[in-house]
């Protein structure tokens, strides 16, 4: 039993060579030639990859993206491409479909089939390389008074300039510097902690900690808005959300440009986000007494048969109450760290390494499985989060007598399947990596394509066409005769990676030899 399993050795060797150990088999059909090929697609399509190889690859890709856009000295050009013939054809077809639907609605006929066809056409429009929706915002956005809270300080507002670059500074010797910033923001204290564990769990404010984690992403958006108003230019950023030992999310942000530290602290103190949701201070349904579903009306009171107010009705009632208070107000804590960073320095490399430190892990990976006190702290936090509504569609709204948005049968409080309620996310459902639109001239996909092109050129391999309309992809089911065993696929990928690595090492040795010869020649 002490002998290692052969399959485990394959996975170890695959990780050493950067091969995905959980590849997804997909069938690629060439619409031009009819070729049918089963390919291994790496599992790491997100930052929280499923295997170490994909996690490392994604981390390196994000590091390259952060490094390329942080200290730009020229304005990034983000001019959209001209639509091609296929994209124009799809939009023209969408216009005809909208006209047919309007005619059917005017005649009083059923439009269900047309609505389904339009939905498929909208999805095809996005797949063809167009962003957004042809109709824009489908419904008007609700808004309340924008008057600032009395307990929040006011902020200066400078005239905006059409620039994404910060100020330059000239030293006494004539050198010009364009510094940037690395900012770390945290949430406030909920009670004394020691090594990430509350000293007195009975006084630790778990309810507030849960709500702050749920709405942390909105608070970050408010901070960016205030930052740009005060800075007077279109501030660009690359940020990562990571967990602290106390399980609260906090933010590391690389910011292009420089501002005084006092202004940054003033902006943090003045930033808040108000959650205008129906109140949750009264529990109407719990235990075995839960609302019942009706196909005609939605959820009903089990005793009186009263129809519970819908999400829109609850918001309308909240908007008509002039004395209503927000459900929650989330703010940053007092701990603010601001560092000035120059391009090409070791500090810049250290900050990039720190930014990407936890991107390959889920937030729940911060838990130490051997730390019983921290595990108990996580369980208490999960209990506080269990019945807290995480979104307008959360089933927990039934507990407080409100039908969730897009309510359907089978919902029950405490059984939300949303990302925020999963143990690995600890209440935070937002994106782990936040990148502004004008950070660089490239998207993450373009950064990935650049790295792929460089490797293929170095190996002398041809680059296959990347026409998105040429190939059709289909999932391969287990038992498919064309699907080889996972061990065979891993061995083949390992052999290919080893061949690539040997070739790259040979090229590196030849380059080092040429550099050495040139150095010797100059010395002679």
What's the arrangement of secondary structure elements?
Elements lengths: L5 H11 L7 E7 L5 E6 L10 H19 L14 H22 L5 H16 L41 E2 L5 E2 L2 E6 L7 E2 L2 E2 L7 H9 L1 H16 L5 E7 L5 E7 L5 H10 L1 E4 L16 E3 L3 E3 L10 H10 L7 E4 L4 E6 L4 H10 L16 H15 L46 E3 L8 H16 L11 E5 L10 H38 L1
Antiparallel strand pairs: 1-2, 1-16, 3-4, 5-9, 5-14, 6-7, 8-9, 8-15, 10-13, 11-12
Short description:
By secondary structure, the protein is of the alpha+beta class. It has 12 helices and 16 strands.
What does this structure look like?
The chain has 12 helices and 16 strands. The chain has helices spanning 6-16, 52-70, 85-106, 112-127, 206-214, 216-231, 261-270, 311-320, 346-355, 372-386, 444-459, 486-523, and strands at 24-30, 36-41, 169-170, 176-177, 180-185, 193-194, 197-198, 237-243, 249-255, 272-275, 292-294, 298-300, 328-331, 336-341, 433-435, 471-475. α1 packs parallel to α12. The model has no long low-confidence stretch (mean pLDDT 87).
């Amino acid at each position: 039993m002490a002998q290692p399993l052969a399959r485990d050795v394959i996975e170890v060797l695959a990780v050493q060579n950067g091969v995905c150990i959980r590849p997804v088999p997909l069938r690629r059909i060439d619409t031009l030639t009819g070729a049918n090929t089963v390919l291994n697609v790496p599992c790491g399509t997100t930052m929280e990859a499923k295997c170490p190889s994909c996690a490392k690859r994604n981390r390196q890709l994000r590091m390259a993206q952060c490094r390329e856009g942080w200290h730009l000295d020229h304005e990034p050009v983000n001019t959209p491409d001209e639509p091609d013939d296929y994209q124009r054809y799809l939009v023209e077809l969408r216009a005809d479909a909208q006209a047919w639907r309007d005619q059917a609605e005017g005649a009083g006929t059923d439009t269900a089939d047309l609505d389904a066809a339009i939905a498929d056409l909208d999805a095809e429009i996005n797949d063809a390389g167009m962003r957004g929706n042809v109709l824009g915002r489908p419904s008007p956005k609700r808004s309340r008074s924008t008057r600032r809270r009395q307990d929040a300080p006011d902020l200066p507002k400078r005239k905006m300039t059409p620039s994404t670059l910060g100020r330059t500074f000239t030293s006494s010797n004539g050198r010009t510097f364009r510094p940037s910033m690395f900012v770390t923001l945290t949430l406030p204290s909920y009670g004394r902690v020691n090594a990430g564990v509350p000293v007195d769990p009975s006084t630790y404010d778990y309810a507030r900690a849960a709500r702050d984690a749920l709405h942390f992403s909105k608070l970050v958006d408010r901070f960016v808005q205030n930052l740009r108003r005060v800075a007077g230019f279109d501030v660009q950023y690359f940020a990562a959300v990571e967990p602290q030992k106390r399980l609260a999310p906090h933010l590391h942000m690389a910011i292009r440009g420089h501002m005084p530290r006092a202004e940054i602290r003033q902006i943090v103190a003045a930033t808040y986000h108000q959650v205008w949701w129906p109140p949750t201070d009264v529990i109407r349904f719990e235990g075995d007494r839960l609302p019942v579903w009706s196909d005609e009306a939605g959820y009903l009171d089990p005793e009186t048969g009263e129809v519970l107010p819908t999400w829109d009705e609850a918001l309308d009632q909240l908007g008509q109450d002039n004395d209503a208070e927000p459900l929650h107000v989330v703010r940053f804590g007092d701990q603010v760290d601001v560092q000035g960073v120059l391009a090409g320095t070791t500090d810049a490399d250290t900050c990039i390494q720190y930014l990407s430190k936890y991107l390959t892990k889920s937030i729940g990976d911060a838990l130490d499985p051997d730390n019983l006190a921290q595990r108990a702290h996580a369980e208490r936090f999960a209990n506080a989060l269990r019945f807290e509504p995480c979104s307008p569609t959360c089933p927990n709204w039934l507990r407080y007598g409100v039908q969730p948005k897009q309510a359907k049968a089978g919902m029950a409080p405490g059984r939300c399947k949303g990302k925020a309620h999963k143990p690995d996310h600890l209440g935070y459902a937002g994106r782990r990596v936040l990148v502004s639109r004008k950070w660089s001239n490239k998207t993450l996909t373009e950064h990935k394509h650049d790295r792929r092109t460089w490797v293929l050129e170095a190996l002398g391999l041809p680059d296959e066409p990347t026409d998105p309309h040429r190939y059709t992809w289909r999932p391969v089911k287990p038992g498919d005769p064309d699907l080889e065993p996972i061990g065979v696929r891993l061995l083949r990928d390992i052999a290919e990676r080893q061949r690539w690595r040997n070739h790259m090492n040979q090229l590196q040795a030849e380059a080092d030899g040429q550099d050495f010869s040139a150095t010797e020649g100059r010395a002679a």
